[in-house]
Design goal:
globular; about 75% helix; mainly alpha
């Protein structure tokens, strides 16, 4: 069959499956995440017509929400007071990023004001693109800058964890499907669906993760849920998330590669310095172990950092609490601050 007649989603699935098989055969880390991500990225840059999996990819994130919610136990709640000081550092962390990031994109890369602001903010890719577009920013620039940030962070974080923190990435991610009680599996599926769709109905940001997390946390705290989702479900989530990261670069032109993607790469280098400083502060003050501190302040996506917290077996509650705080503050504050900046910042002649 000629390639031209193969549907784009089938091509994506084939590339991702081959990538997974190659990474697995070579014993490379996180084959279900990095295999699809790298092979779909290469396909996207080679202009292979690929297409994401739509609602199925969104549904994959509900698995992570349920996994986080199931990890919220009375013991985790009892530990929340000890997170107060480190969580209080999050607004400072965001402010420093803004003070460095906005001039970085504005002066060095000649982005206009709204684009520079929303490119600098370490929020979710979709949220920053939506808010930025409403504020008059360049959506393509925002999409590529944030996709590059997530791609590099999720690519480098495992290397840093294994080589600098001596961390294994093969922590058991869940029990096999066959070992789960069928009724508890059914409860988790219901929690994922109700949390996701209920969250969307009330306008909850990040509903596909936060909705299932909230519902499952309530079930966990009440003693109804005792397990994370099965290992197979978490591997499937890795697979779909990896595909999604890779195909974000579909249709990238040489001009975009040398400007928007290059800007994203350079910005991650700046963010890595800030992350290192805050990781040192949090671990140095004894507020957390270094691995949890690193994952809590790494400027990756919430879903991706949740996956890394699961595979490293670190303090999932600590990591998720800090990322939730960062995302909430950015989403609430971004439109307000961007509006204030627009009053005092002249528009750039060049986008």
């Amino acid at each position: 069959m000629r390639s031209a007649f193969i549907p784009a989603r089938i091509k994506t699935l084939l590339l991702a499956t081959i990538g997974t098989a190659v990474f697995w055969a070579l014993s490379l880390p996180l084959p279900f995440l990095f295999g699809p991500m790298i092979f779909c990225l290469c396909g996207a840059l080679a202009n292979v017509p690929l297409k994401g999996f739509g609602e199925l990819s969104t549904a994959a994130r509900t698995v992570l929400g349920v996994a986080v919610g199931a990890s919220i136990t009375p013991d985790v709640i009892a530990q929340l007071p000890r997170m107060t000081l480190s969580v209080a550092l999050i607004p400072i962390y965001i402010a420093i990023i803004a003070l460095i990031g906005i001039p970085f994109f504005r002066k060095l890369w000649r982005f206009d004001g709204p684009t520079a602001y929303y490119a600098a903010m370490p929020g979710g890719l979709q949220d920053m693109v939506i808010f930025g577009t409403e504020a008059g920013a360049d959506p393509r620039a925002l999409s590529l800058v944030h996709a590059t940030r997530v791609l590099i962070v999720i690519s480098l974080a495992p290397f840093i964890l294994s080589h600098f923190y001596d961390t294994d990435l093969d922590n058991p991610i869940g029990v096999p499907l066959s070992a789960l009680p069928w009724y508890e599996l059914g409860i988790m599926v219901a929690a994922a669906w109700l949390g996701w769709k209920g969250g969307e109905r009330i306008g909850l940001f990040g509903a596909s993760i936060l909705g299932p997390m909230i519902v499952t946390a309530a079930l966990s705290l009440s003693g109804v849920v005792h397990f994370r989702p099965p290992a197979e479900a978490i591997l499937a989530a890795q697979f779909l998330i990896g595909c999604g990261i890779g195909i974000n670069f579909l249709g990238v032109t040489w001009t975009e590669l040398t400007r928007f993607v290059a800007a994203g790469v350079a910005y991650v280098l700046l963010l890595s310095v800030i992350t290192t400083i805050f990781t040192g502060i949090v671990s140095g003050l004894g507020l957390s172990d270094p691995i949890s501190a690193f994952l809590a302040f790494a400027p990756g996506g919430q879903a991706e950092m949740t996956l890394l917290a699961i595979v490293t077996g670190t303090d999932l509650g600590f990591v998720v609490t800090h990322h939730l705080t960062r995302i909430i503050l950015v989403i609430i504050g971004a439109p307000i601050v961007a509006g204030l900046l627009s009053r005092f910042t002249p528009s750039s002649d060049e986008n």
